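Q: Can I see a sequence and its folded structure?
A: Here is a first one.
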Amino acid sequence: MEQVFEFDENEISYIIYTYFGFLQKNDDHCTFEQLIAIILSIYFIEILFHRRYQSTNSEIWTTKKISLEEFIALILEGCYFIKFKPTREDL
């Protein structure tokens, strides 16, 4: 997770905490696909947003609303490690 996503210690701890929360809700079972889904959803939904909009005083932070252009830029920036990246048109 450190090499691919460039997660810091706090981000890794948050993912592990979320993973164990998922396990508790699902009788201590998690498939590999579910684990990947957990990591990617946290990465794309929370971590990228926090990395880009660090100021909690900004309107974007307080409303959690971004424009389509900001969304596209955020996702394309966050897909640096993926071999086949989404196109601007797909996003």
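Q: Show me another, different protein.
A: A second, unrelated one:
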Amino acid sequence: MKIPWAVPYIDETELAEVTEAVRTNWLSMGKRVRALEEELADYLGLRHAILVSNGTVALDLALKVVGVGAGDEVIVPAMTYVATLNAVLYQGATPVFADIELETFNIDPQDIERKITPRTRAIMCIDYGGNPASHSELRDIARRHQLVLVQDAAQSLGGVYQGTRLGRQGDISTTSFHAAKTITTIEGGAVFTDDDGVAERLRILRNQGEDPKHKYWHVELGYNARMTDLHAAIGLVQWRKRDAIWARRAEIAEAYRSRLADLESTRLPVTRNSCGGHAAHREPCCRNGWFFFPILVPNRDHVAEILSVHGVETRICYPVPVYEQPFFRTRPEANGRYSCPNAVAVTSQVINLPMFHQMTTEQVDYVCQALREALAEV
């Protein structure tokens, strides 16, 4: 059996919407982009969702509009995708790496407190794999130190924190709609904000710095960061499938958890539930969005090789703390003074098992059996 790590849930409905977009003869940013922006903003209960060409661009623009610049420091998680780091570097700012919690694999608020200096301008957080970070603590730290909280919600949509949908916890938040994400536009991203002025500037920046009221009148240095209506056409159909997609992924995650519960050599991240009350009488106030299914295993690389032999494709998200990425280690910002032992431990053991909407129970069983066999060999 061959089981891929991820497969986009694309069918005839996306094709029909794209075909209709082509027939209208309006392929660049237009009414479908606006429609998807409205649906995203409504879902999160925010005033604005600004669609852009990808999630990395969304992060770059978000940091620009909140005023991060040269000489500033931005605290980021030591375990994250490289785009989180890159967005800080694009501003000429200095990334400062905070360790992660061993329980949730998310940024550790206590270590953030230790890393704040007079130069700190912002905190960036992620929800690792869709697992909510400790947002109330992060918000409290940001307010006390007068810092901007930027939520990189590339993995977050579908999750919930203290009864609030993930993606709206930051002063400004972003997401990604890459092909591997739970909801995809193939390539694409968005920035979320309640601030009308910030939203206006984001729309100017994404469109070559052009004044929206005056064609070819450019009021600042901007970017070609527009999403096309073709991508938004796919996104509109995907977005209307979201409940089914997220529900199925939660079912797959629960199937994994139940089948692997007796494995003493493995460990899963914990989704914190901090709303109080008796769990039997309420919906969970914190819910994982299940972008991927991570598990810690001994001798991880060997386990991955054995799974590959069995036809099971995996990912390692992420193989090293982000400050150990080769390109960064040669930069002047990399002073080598990082102490993030939890990130070192988790990145050396984490492996991400297959998860996609069309995955069958038979495939879950096969992956679990292959994992047991791999663990028996290491």
